[in-house]
Amino acid sequence: FLGRWVADGCFHRTGVRIAVHADEADQVEALCRGLFGHVTRYAKPGGTGRGVDLVVNATLVKYVLRDALGMDDGSERKRVPADIFLAPLPVVAGFLRGYFSGDGTFSGKYVEATTTSAGLAQDVITLLQYFGIAARYRPKPERNGAPAYRVRFLW
What we know:
This protein is of the alpha+beta class. The chain has helices at about 1-10, 20-35, 60-70, 80-85, 90-105, 120-130, and strands spanning about 10, 15-20, 40-45, 50-55, 105, 110-115, 135-140, 150-155.
């Protein structure tokens, strides 16, 4: 859950929200429902895409993420929570799985993820090194010219 939230989540007035593609909404909703109970699904109104918002209406979850784990929303401010760096390897692997399932792609021989947070890109590279995976990141501006960073490793 934490990796997926870092990739595609934000704080909501009454809890937390994760934006997902319709093809993966059932899987992510089941994960959230298993962890937190009730999840509300919103199709994005007037959108031509297939985006779905999943909202966990639990202020406690919001406060734990924000205040206890020090997580921040806003793409350019996101980082890997400090506790993940100290976690057992299976937890780190779960975080990376969640993160790459949200922000990652597979292009031929590379696994890539793009973020607008240079700090998050560096954090992800550090976690990949725990598994002996040599990755790099480089600036890759968004289409609108905004700064972005691509983390890439050979598969």
